[in-house]
Design a protein that fits this description.
There is one protein chain. It contains two helices and no strands. The protein is about 90% helix and about 0% strand. By secondary structure, it is mainly alpha-helical. The longest helix has about 40 residues. The chain is rod-shaped and about 65 Å long. The chain has one domain: F1FO ATP Synthase. Helix 1 packs antiparallel against helix 2.
Amino acid sequence: MEAAIVKAACAIGAGIAIGFGAIGPAIGEGNAVGKALEGMSRQPEMTNVLRTNMILGCAITESTGIYSLVISLLLLFVF
């Protein structure tokens, strides 16, 4: 009985971890892309610089989502 409760708690925790871990980077990347597109429309000559910085920033932001995925998988398969 106790093992079943621990498994259920791990499954719920994994779902919450991936849910909260994915929503933050999604909002941040959406804002970053929107601002980069706004900057590209205002200054078309800066398109390459803005695109490079945007992709680098999105890659760094996405790492937090990947960390939450790893934690969720650990909760599901290790415990």
